[in-house]
Amino acid sequence: MQDAMANRPHGLMFHHFHGTGFAPSQGSIDADTFERILAHYAQSHRVLDADEYLQRALSGDLGPRDVCITFDDSLLCQYDVALPVLERHGLHAFWFIYSGVIAGRIEPLEVYRRYRSEYFDDIDGFYAEFFKALARSPHADTAATALCDFVPRHYLAEFPFYTENDRRFRYLRDIVLSSSGYDDVMTLMMDASGTSAAELAEGLWIGAEQLRMLHQAGHVIGLHSHTHPTMLAALPADLQLREYTDNQQILANILGATPNTMSHPCNSYDDVTLDGLRSLGIELGFRSNMSPAPPSALEHPREDHANIVKRLGLCPTSPAVTSARVLPGSTERRLGSIC
Ligand SMILES: [Zn+2]
């Protein structure tokens, strides 16, 4: 298993960090763990600056042990916790930014993740309150009916590590409740806790000024769609292109330069997506896993930091709080981060 897929250039994909001002959450790592990951790769690989990785990719000059550092999802914890580590090493990374949050949009997945990690000791505490809130919501009858014939062990049977509560929660969230129904229940819970999505969204995401500083310091800012759909490839071609056109325009206005790199949110893309990205001048793109893909400039593989910490025997934070509204089979990092 040791670095079985590593003999080809790839990115190291990071998401959540914890440290001063950022509570531990499912799969999050601290600065020390990040440092140890960098040290490991420095021994076995060549860790390139993002701009060098980009230039070598464009000229076909990447070696099999070349890697780069990438951050997805515009998270402020990356800027506050991981950036100082990079600066100590004199390294520049790729930062793949979804622009909706910069334009003031609140991304519920991140807000709910923060709510779970800051307001509950463990996942069963969260589930208990979720089921109670559901029972007093307008969706109570629908849920009760759906659960009549529900046999937990038959649902998501391919994931043996899920508990009965995990299965019941996912069934309700992903199958029974609509997206807005799930939001209704979460809003009831947050109200009961005396907080709100707006309050929880404060300090979650990187802002325009920080992006400018990263860009000016030599980091590479790339696209990650505008609203971060979990299944972008299911959108019609015009909406797919719109996601990236808006994303690119907003980032270009902030940076004064047009991004030409990207990573695929939730690893969701198809030939239509790739054609649209090429039409926008995107020259380098990253997947969200190490699975074999065609040798395409827009499909460079990446290793999830959750896999790296497992392989190195490091200990990520694991409050067992699940974090995503992602259907089984998705390669979304959030699901991949669940231990
Ligand atoms: Zn993402």
Would you kindly provide a written description of the structure presented here, covering whatever features stand out?
By secondary structure, the chain is α/β, with parallel strands linked by helices. The protein folds into 2 domains: 10-106 and 205-336, Glycoside hydrolase/deacetylase (TIM Barrel, Alpha-Beta Barrel); 110-200, no CATH class. Helices cover 45% and strands 9% of the residues. It contains 14 helices and 8 strands. Helix 2 (50-59) links the parallel strand 2 and strand 3. It binds zinc ion. Residues 72-73, 224, 228, 265 line the site of zinc ion (ZN).
Question: Quick one: how many beta strands?
Answer: 8
- Mind telling me which CATH architecture of the largest domain this is? Alpha-Beta Barrel
Would you tell me which CATH topology of the largest domain applies? Answer: TIM Barrel
Looking at how many chains there are and whether they match, the oligomeric state comes to: single chain
The tally of domains stands at 2
> Fraction of residues in helices?
40-55%
Q: β content, as a range?
A: 5-15%
Distance between the termini: 18 Å
Global morphology: globular
Rg (C-alpha, Å): 20 Å
SSE layout and pairing:
Layout: E1 10-14, H1 31-44, E2 46-48, H2 50-59, E3 66-72, H3 76-89, E4 94-97, H4 108-119, H5 123-135, H6 140-148, H7 164-176, H8 179-192, H9 197-201, H10 208-217, E5 220-223, H11 237-255, E6 261-263, H12 271-279, E7 284-286, E8 302-304, H13 305-311, H14 333-336
Parallel strand pairs: 1-3, 1-8, 2-3, 3-4, 4-5, 6-7
Helix pairs in contact: 5-8, 11-12
Residues 72-73, 224, 228, 265 line the site of zinc ion.
